[in-house]
Amino acid sequence: MKSKTVLLLLLKRLASESTAERRGMERMKRVLVMLFVAFTVLVMLPEEASATRWTIGGNMGWNTNFNYTTWAKDKHFYKDDWLFFVYDRNQQNVLEVNKTDYESCNSDHPLHNWTTGAGRDVVPLNVTRNYYFISGKGFCYGGMKIAVHVENPPPPPKAAPIKAGATTIVSSRSQIILLPVVFAIGSAWDAFVHFCNCCFLGGVNC
Question: At 84, which helix (H) or strand (E)?
Fold first, then answer.
């Protein structure tokens, strides 16, 4: 009789533990679904404007017999962009000069020598101003000179206001999308904490 009672108690215990495990798995599945939804929404958020690396001259690179003024004319160079000079390291170089030396191709007193010796030089545009670059050794006279005007990036576009007659609430797209993300992450965290309490602390109502 006692053995039957013990057996019944063990079966009930196993059944309750099995039910708790199933509930725990269900909660974990809900957590994973919520995290997946939050991740998907974050991917859909508009990206911030990123810096651009400009290869000077495009496919022509930094070379003679090329009009760099025309090449740069229709381009917008923003703060934190990069200039990438590709050239023959055995002959040319990259010198930053002032406007006067740029116009006269004078390489005697450069403001900065960006030449590294690899023929692959990168110049960060971290200030909004005019930059002037030439190649010394006489190559400036062959057209190896470029002036770059650097400006601040344009502000992000604003959302259109709601129609007249309604309460005007102007909010950016990212703010609108971010709200459900916050709620989704909060719900996922709450479910995860509840699951941990059930599994490891033997919480009530698991």
Answer: strand 81-86
Relative orientation angle of helices 173-196 and 2-44, to the nearest 10 degrees: 160
Biggest CA pair distance of the chain: 110
Residues of the chain with pLDDT under 50: 2, 6-7, 11, 14, 31, 33, 35, 37-39, 41-43, 45-48, 165-177, 204
pLDDT, tens digit, 9 for 90 and up, residues 105-142: 999 999 999 999 999 999 999 999 999 999 999 999 99
Q: What is the pTM of this model?
A: 0.56
181 Rama sector, left if φ>0, alpha if ψ -120 to 50, beta otherwise: alpha
Please, which residues bridge with residue 113 across strands? 95
